[in-house]
């Protein structure tokens, strides 16, 4: 299942075209990706079936595939698990859907976070959590991990036929019993900050009863939306793959300008300043460093800039208005200190240290070394931040253009 993100959705020919056009024609890339997002029938969906040992997840997979435990190709069942790798089973009722039987979440004595790394939790597209008898702590933790990724899941209370027999023995009504179980599941999800998913009460042996048929029809109904959500979530990774060549080229330009700036900073040119501050300051070298950095910033803006006209052209060809695209482009993830603030603080610190060093009579060699290092750091920090910011802005534009919300 391990493959590049682009390879999951695009053929080799389509990938080559995307990576080529991405260098100069972002609008064409957006339209190609939009066309693909509208036609995801042939994209494989990987569904992870998770639960504790003995929860009935393997029996559930067999039931979904209309198999009995002793049929050829059926998932092995039982309360003991001896495998540590997820096992794939095709779900032929829906094209390009694979059910993955994951080892029990409480097997092999792994702490849950280590277990999730071991089974490569993040590579799956959709999840089905299987639990029996009661809501478990692992169910809540896994559900939270899934929603943190922006992905979706179903929750299954398995072996519900056992609950039915228990309710009958107690003389309780089945409908009220099912409602109570659902309320308990919803309450437990809400208590840990998880939006309650679709909840199904099933028996893998009594497949015509309870919610089993409803589960199968719901999965078939939701499949297009699930695939669309997976496509949307992988846009950042796809953009990284497509822009890798251009990013590498622009990174080289940043390094060349940074080295040039450092070289200029190493050759201090002093101009005396009139009283009341009778100290020399490296005006020319500082000015040259700033101009080199500014020229690099202009170059990156030209290479990666997104004009209002460009955004409007994209908006005219997708279903989202330009105001929405611009708002998403300008959206920033919360950070403790923004790059702009750190760049200003860096510049002020460099200038202060330079003046202090000269005022206290540092040797020309020390001033030269400091000038080289400070100019190098200033130019690299500003241009590298600008490069990353502009690439992230492109990524946000693509996500906004393909958004269906």
Itemize the secondary structure elements and their pairings.
Blueprint (H helix, E strand, L loop, with lengths): L4 H5 L2 H10 L4 H12 L7 E6 L6 H8 L22 E4 L6 E5 L10 H7 L7 E7 L4 H12 L3 E7 L1 H11 L3 H18 L6 E4 L10 H22 L1 H8 L1 H22 L5 E2 L7 E2 L1 H22 L3 H10 L4 H8 L9 H21 L4 H39 L3
Parallel strand pairs: 1-3, 1-4, 4-5, 5-6
Antiparallel strand pairs: 2-3, 7-8
What does this structure look like?
The protein is built from 16 helices and eight strands. The chain has about 400 residues and is of the alpha/beta class. The chain has a six-stranded mixed beta sheet with strand order 2-3-1-4-5-6, with helices on both faces. α3 (about 25-35) packs across α16 (about 365-400). The radius of gyration is 29 Å and the shape is elongated.
């Amino acid at each position: 299942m391990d493959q590049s993100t682009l390879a999951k959705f695009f053929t080799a020919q389509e990938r080559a075209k995307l990576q080529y056009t991405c260098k100069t024609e972002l609008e064409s890339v957006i339209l190609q990706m939009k066309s693909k997002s509208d036609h995801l029938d042939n994209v494989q969906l990987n569904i992870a079936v998770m639960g504790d040992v003995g929860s009935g997840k393997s029996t559930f997979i067999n039931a979904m595939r209309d198999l009995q435990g002793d049929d050829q190709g059926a998932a092995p069942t039982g309360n003991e698990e001896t495998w540590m790798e997820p096992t794939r089973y095709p779900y032929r009722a829906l094209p390009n859907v694979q059910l993955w039987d994951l080892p029990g979440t409480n097997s092999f004595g792994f702490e849950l976070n280590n277990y999730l790394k071991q089974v490569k939790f993040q590579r799956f597209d959709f999840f089905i959590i299987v639990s029996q008898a009661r809501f478990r702590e692992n169910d809540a933790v896994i559900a939270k991990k899934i929603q943190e990724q922006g992905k979706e899941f179903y929750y299954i209370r398995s072996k519900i036929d056992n609950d039915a027999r228990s309710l009958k023995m107690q003389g309780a009504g089945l409908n009220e019993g099912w409602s109570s179980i659902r309320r308990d599941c919803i309450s437990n999800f809400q208590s840990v900050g998880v939006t309650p998913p679709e909840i199904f009460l099933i028996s893998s042996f009594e497949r015509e009863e309870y919610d089993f048929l409803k589960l199968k029809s719901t999965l078939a109904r939701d499949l297009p939306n699930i695939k669309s959500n997976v496509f949307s979530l992988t846009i950042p990774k796809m953009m990284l793959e497509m822009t890798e060549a251009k990013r590498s080229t622009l990174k080289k330009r940043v390094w060349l300008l940074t080295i040039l700036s450092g070289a200029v900073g190493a050759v201090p040119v002093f101009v005396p300043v009139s009283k009341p501050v009778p100290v020399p300051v490296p005006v020319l070298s500082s000015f040259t460093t700033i101009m080199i950095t500014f020229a690099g910033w202009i170059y990156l803006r030209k290479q990666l800039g997104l004009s209002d006209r460009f955004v409007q052209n994209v908006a005219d060809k997708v279903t989202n208005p330009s105001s929405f695209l611009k708002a998403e482009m300008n959206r920033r993830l919360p950070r403790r200190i923004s790059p702009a603030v750190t760049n200003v603080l860096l510049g002020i610190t460099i200038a202060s240290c330079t003046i202090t060093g000269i005022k206290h009579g540092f040797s020309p060699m020390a001033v030269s070394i400091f000038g080289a290092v400070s100019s190098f750091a200033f130019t690299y920090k500003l241009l590298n931040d600008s490069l990353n910011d502009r690439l992230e802005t492109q990524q946000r534009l693509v996500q906004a253009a393909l958004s269906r919300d």
